[in-house]
């Protein structure tokens, strides 16, 4: 028998549709049922690509006896954290406060009015030192609920009061050139000089921090900043976390040397890293970084693109219940190619298998043959829901990479994804967070959806010249400013709109974690839009972005590793963003000027080409001698127009460090 998850649009929820647990989706009806029965709620949060979520499902949620106990004594609610990041954020904060750590699966017990009173993550089927079994846990919770309900209700109220008390915006603090330089010094102190990246194992790709380091070098010439960025980029691209055959990056490395990955592949990681490697290739001219970009784009288009033109959320860590089964090789299977991939008779993974690293170039024929052989193996599952924010990230990355590397098909793929988001996710000016098979999901967009999608549409406007994308982006930004701002704290934002479902606390987390925070993604888009939009919006966007960065100033100064995107935005503000407007008919002369600008404008700057007056940036910028011309402005102060590529290059490289 199927349960109430059978009609869900979330692949994660559908994974649990045949469990003997009588799951409910997150809904008012579930909590009403808990009140009617006077039982607690088991909240279980995870996502489709989560290895330990699968493990706990097999061990506990597929167990008939465990399910029978849950069904008798709880209302069980299953949540996809990617579909409901607001629910996940609120109860993850509780889990971290109660246990000192967090992660997925997340297991939280709630009163019938959704107040938490006990929290944890994975629980095994049999007790372990310091950890009860899941069956012991639910029996203890049920017994306590029956014997001491008033104490539980008081405890839950105290938890909600405490997390609400702590949820106050940081006081404003300026982020200037000194703060940015100090962030580099702080990062140097945490940098792993042997392996690249920061700290030890497990090691995650510090995508937004790396982007900041590139931008800081572009503005200041800092050797330390670019050294940390390139050393980490090299280590990641050479390690097992990067798919040496098919392109794309896994979620993280379980070791400090980037050798053995946790094999799930997330869209947001690959979008952020694609953009970073594109910018690093532009900075260095490295063929190796270009190869990473091209192979990562191939992975995205081959394995994550959906039939509707969007991009799927992730590939599973497991294949047929075995982590990494698709990707690992034995020494004998590789034959003469083993040395090129750093594989020896002494395996670095499990069951005599190894992950692949880059030691030397094996040759295209060898690589293609191994990839074809791997394609014949069982493949990991795909979570094919389309998430607005993550697709916004990949739209931006594909647009910029396509422009820089001269690949119009990449820009077309970005345009297709944007069209899907505009037609399916955008309803009367408001965003829906997810869709699947071209059908929108039930959840409203959160702040990161507005910020990241606006950022992607602004990048697409620049590389296509289409005013449609600029108009849609500005509409999203106007909605975000109106519906998500904290009214009593200028520059601060909530992650949910003012008319969103009321949770026990309205989430507002400005920290950059695996992906940009909602507030930093909004600030980034506001800076870019201030350079591209008309005069009626430009100053308002710039002031809003500046206020948001100031509100995150203490975070940027004290914890730069968790403010990478904020620091990137601050770099643009301190630099005084560069604008290049290329006007003229669509011919080879205009194309040459545009390509020269794209190749040299640093991060945070904008480039738009088109007929005079066809976009706000192109207004009041006439042709010169009836031919194409480029207008270069820094910090809203403009040079005289130039008509040759040589003169444009001279203008763009003037005063560079």
TrEMBL record:
Coiled coil: none annotated. Residues 2-163 form the Spermatogenesis-associated protein 20-like TRX domain. It comes from the Bacteria. SUPFAM superfamilies: Six-hairpin glycosidases, Thioredoxin-like. CDD domains: SSP411. It holds the Pfam family Thioredox_DsbH. This is Spermatogenesis-associated protein 20-like TRX domain-containing protein. It comes from Lentzea pudingi.
């Amino acid at each position: 028998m199927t349960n109430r998850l059978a009609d869900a649009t979330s692949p994660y929820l559908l994974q649990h549709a045949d469990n003997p647990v009588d799951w409910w989706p997150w809904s008012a009806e579930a909590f009403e049922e808990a009140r009617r029965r006077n039982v607690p709620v088991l909240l279980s949060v995870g996502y489709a690509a989560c290895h330990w979520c699968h493990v706990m499902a097999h061990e506990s949620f597929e167990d008939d006896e465990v399910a029978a106990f849950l069904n008798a004594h709880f209302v069980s609610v299953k949540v996809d954290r990617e579909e409901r990041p607001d629910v996940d954020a609120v109860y993850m904060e509780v889990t971290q406060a109660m246990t000192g750590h967090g992660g997925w699966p997340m297991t939280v017990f709630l009163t019938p009015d959704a107040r938490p009173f006990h929290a944890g993550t994975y629980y095994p089927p049999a007790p372990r030192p310091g950890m009860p079994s899941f069956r012991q846990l639910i029996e203890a919770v049920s017994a306590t609920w029956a014997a001491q309900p008033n104490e539980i209700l008081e405890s839950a109220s105290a938890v909600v009061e405490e997390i609400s008390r702590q949820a106050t915006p940081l006081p404003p603090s300026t982020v200037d050139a000194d703060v940015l330089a100090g962030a580099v010094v702080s990062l140097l102190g945490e940098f792993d000089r042997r392996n690249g990246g920061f700290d030890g194992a497990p090691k995650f790709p510090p995508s937004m921090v790396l982007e900041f380091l590139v931008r800081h070098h572009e503005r200041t010439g800092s050797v330390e900043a670019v050294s940390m960025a390139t050393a980490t980029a090299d280590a990641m691209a050479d390690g097992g976390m990067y798919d040496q055959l098919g392109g794309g990056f896994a979620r993280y490395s379980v070791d400090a040397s980037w050798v053995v990955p946790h094999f799930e592949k997330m869209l947001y990681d690959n979008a952020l890293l694609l953009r970073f490697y594109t910018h690093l290739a532009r900075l260095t001219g490295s063929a190796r970084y270009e190869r990473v970009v091209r192979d990562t784009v191939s992975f995205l288009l081959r394995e994550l693109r959906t039939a509707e033109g969007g991009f799927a959320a992730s590939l599973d860590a497991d294949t047929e219940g075995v982590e990494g089964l698709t990707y690992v090789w034995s020494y004998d299977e590789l034959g003469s190619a083993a040395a090129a991939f750093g594989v020896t008779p002494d395996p670095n993974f499990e069951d005599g298998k190894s992950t692949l690293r880059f030691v030397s170039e094996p040759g295209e024929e060898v690589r293609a043959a191994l990839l074809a052989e791997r394609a014949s193996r069982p493949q990991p599952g795909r979570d094919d829901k389309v998430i607005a924010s993550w697709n916004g990230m990949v739209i931006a990355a594909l647009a910029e990479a396509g422009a820089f590397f001269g690949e119009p098909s990449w820009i077309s793929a970005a345009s297709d994804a944007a069209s899907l988001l505009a037609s399916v996710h955008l309803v009367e000016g408001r965003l829906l967070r997810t869709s699947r098979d071209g059908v929108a999901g039930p959840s409203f967009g959160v702040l990161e959806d507005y910020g990241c999608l606006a950022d992607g549409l602004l990048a697409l406007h620049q590389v296509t010249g289409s005013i449609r994308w600029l108009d849609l982006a500005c509409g999203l930004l106007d909605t975000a400013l109106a519906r998500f701002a904290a009214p009593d704290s200028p520059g601060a934002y909530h992650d949910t709109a003012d008319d969103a479902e009321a949770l026990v606390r309205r989430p507002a987390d400005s920290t950059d974690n695996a992906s940009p925070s909602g507030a930093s993604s909004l600030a980034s888009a506001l800076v870019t839009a201030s350079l591209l939009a008309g005069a009626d919006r430009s100053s308002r966007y710039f002031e809003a972005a500046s206020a948001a960065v100031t509100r995150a100033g203490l975070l940027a100064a004290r914890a730069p590793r968790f403010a990478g995107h904020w620091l990137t935005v601050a770099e643009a503000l301190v630099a005084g963003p560069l604008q290049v407007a290329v006007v003229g008919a669509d011919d080879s002369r205009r194309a040459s000027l545009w390509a020269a600008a794209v190749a040299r404008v640093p991060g945070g700057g904008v480039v738009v080409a088109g007929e005079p007056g066809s976009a706000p940036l192109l207004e009041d910028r006439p042709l010169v001698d009836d031919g194409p011309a480029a207008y270069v402005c820094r910090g809203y102060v403009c040079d005289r127009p130039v008509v040759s590529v040589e003169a444009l290059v001279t203008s763009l490289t003037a005063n560079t460090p």
